[in-house]
Design goal:
Radius of gyration: 19 Å
Distance between the termini: 15 Å
Order of helices and strands: EEEEEEEEEHHEHHHHHHHHHEH
Number of strands: 11
Helix content: 25-40%
Number of helices: 12
Shape: globular
CATH topology of the domain at 4-155: Jelly Rolls
Structural class: alpha+beta
Strand order of the largest sheet: 1-2-9-4-7-10
CATH architecture of the domain at 4-155: Sandwich
Strand content: 15-25%
Largest sheet: 6 strands, antiparallel
């Protein structure tokens, strides 16, 4: 297994960064496993790998990988993605709060959503190379997180947090408020709020709220092996178990029952055995989030591209 450590960032970064993480080097995490299905968390993430081993992602059951280099920023997604898991020297990264994308990258979240983007496409190449060199010269995972903190502090503007309107909408949506109620309270038009939110967060308000509810149900399933699926669905205000199952399949390509049988060690990282990737895995497609029969922790569970 890759050994991971994580912690909250220093105080001035907390309005923007929810979590810092780092891994040391290590082999493939399970015997015979070569790929990992990463479930959508609702967060944007940034990752820099040590060495020359690139991030390699796959679409659906296609065995041809997309090589994204060693430094990427992953936008908010509504579908799982599949990545290659192989021996690597380690990596360091951060999970970002919604609404931070443009502050960090000068790129609207909508342009980064549903995809992984090379950091050298949005950050100065020579400056990024200098950051990578500093990380390579740092001996421990904890010290690499300190370097990344310094890098993020230099990139972010001197503001207190995300836009007040976006922060208000995020809070109300997390409370379960209807979008129509938020629109009425704001005094703005539905079109204006939806466009502003999507530019800042990457997905529309209703999609964000559905993804947040899915993640709460996912955490519940991951924590509890005894509560029935119907009880989990009721606890998270789905219409019924079938409704939750449809949403689960939409976001992950897995049914809740399959997910529970796999029992992944990390809530959002599902190791896929070689024989499943090569044969039984049908179609986990960007946008449609559908798989037929793969053989197969908390809110800030690590997202490690």
């Amino acid at each position: 297994m890759l050994v991971s450590i994580c912690r909250r960032p220093r105080a001035e970064l907390r309005p923007f960064v929810s979590l810092l993480w780092a891994t040391d080097g290590g082999p493939t995490p399970a015997a015979g496993a070569c790929h990992e299905l990463v479930l959508p968390s609702g967060a944007m993430h940034l990752s820099i790998r040590l060495g020359d081993s690139p991030v390699r992602l796959f679409k659906g059951s296609d065995q041809r990988a997309t090589d994204l280099g060693t430094a990427v920023i992953g936008g908010v997604r509504e579908s799982a993605f599949r990545k290659e898991v192989a021996g690597q020297r380690g990596s360091v990264g951060a999970m970002l709060w919604p609404g931070v994308a443009e502050l960090l990258s000068n790129t609207p979240a909508g342009a980064l959503a549903h995809r992984h983007t090379r950091l050298d496409d949005i950050w100065d190449h020579s400056w990024l190379a200098e950051v990578k060199e500093r990380l390579e010269a740092t001996s421990t995972s904890e010290n690499r997180m300190l370097v990344l903190e310094e890098v993020l502090a230099r990139r972010l503007p001197r503001v207190r947090g995300v836009d007040a309107l976006i922060a208000h909408m995020l809070a109300r949506l997390d409370q379960g408020s209807r979008v129509s109620d938020i629109v009425r309270e704001s005094g703005f038009s539905h079109r204006y709020l939806a466009r502003t939110f999507t530019q800042a967060v990457g997905i529309p308000p209703k999609s964000y709220q559905r993804l947040r509810r899915f993640n709460r149900a996912l955490d519940h399933l991951h924590r509890s092996a005894t509560m029935s699926l119907a009880e989990v669905a009721a606890a998270h205000r789905y219409a019924d178990q079938a409704h939750m199952s449809r949403e689960f399949l939409r976001f992950t390509g897995l049914t809740p029952g399959n997910y529970r049988r796999i029992a992944p060690a990390d809530a959002r990282h599902v190791v896929i055995p070689n024989d499943v990737v090569g044969g039984q895995l049908c179609s986990i497609r960007d946008g449609t989030r559908r798989a037929d029969r793969p053989g197969n922790n908390q809110e800030n569970s690590l997202v490690r591209p």
